[in-house]
């Protein structure tokens, strides 16, 4: 059974950094795409970043490009989201997700989800 467990969220000030982790287990993820999504209160879940496990190609939402970096550690089966220069509008619950195949921005096309981790950025 696939399990995705996020960690690393917290309360920070604008301009600070955080690194989120997503530990994946339950199968071999080499043919999977791993995504980070976020959902703020009253808003729809939105794409943040994704990485193709094999090869490491990365994709970003325009709103985080240049500030966030997604990466993976094959040995640890873990995906990271390094978030720098955080803004109050980055406040949301952040979710890790996995899908077989290519990276896409539509959250409905991801089959596996973690429980989420809260990120709060104060101004």
Task: Provide structural commentary.
The protein is mainly beta and 123 residues long. 0% of the residues lie in helices and 52% in strands.
Provide a short characterization of the protein structure.
With 123 residues, the protein is mainly beta.
Helix-strand blueprint:
Elements lengths: L2 E5 L2 E4 L4 E8 L6 E8 L6 E7 L5 E3 L7 E6 L4 E6 L8 E9 L11 E2 L3 E6 L1
Parallel strand pairs: 2-11
Antiparallel strand pairs: 1-3, 3-8, 4-5, 4-9, 5-6, 7-8, 9-10, 9-11
Any descriptors?
four-stranded antiparallel β-sheet, seven-stranded mixed β-sheet, mainly beta, 123 residues
Order of helices and strands: EEEEEEEEEEE
Through-space gap between termini: 40 Å
Radius of gyration from CA coordinates: 13 Å
Uncertain regions spanning at least 5 consecutive residues: none
Count of alpha/pi helices: 0
According to DSSP, the number of beta strands is 11
How much of the residues is beta strand, in percent?
over 45%
Structural class: mainly beta
Strand count, sense and barrel status of the largest sheet are:
7 strands, mixed
Mean pLDDT: 95
Shape, please? Answer: globular
């Amino acid at each position: 059974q696939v399990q995705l467990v996020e960690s690393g969220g917290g309360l920070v000030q604008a301009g600070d950094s955080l690194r989120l982790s997503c530990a994946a287990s339950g199968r071999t993820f080499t043919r999977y795409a791993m995504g980070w999504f976020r959902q703020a209160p009253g808003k729809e879940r939105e794409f943040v970043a994704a990485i193709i496990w094999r090869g490491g190609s990365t994709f970003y939402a325009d709103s985080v490009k240049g500030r966030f970096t997604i990466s993976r550690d094959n040995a640890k089966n873990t995906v990271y989201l390094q978030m720098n220069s955080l803004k109050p509008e980055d406040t949301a619950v952040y979710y890790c997700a996995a899908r077989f195949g290519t990276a896409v921005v539509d959250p409905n096309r991801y089959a596996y989800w973690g429980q989420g981790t809260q990120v709060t950025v104060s101004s």
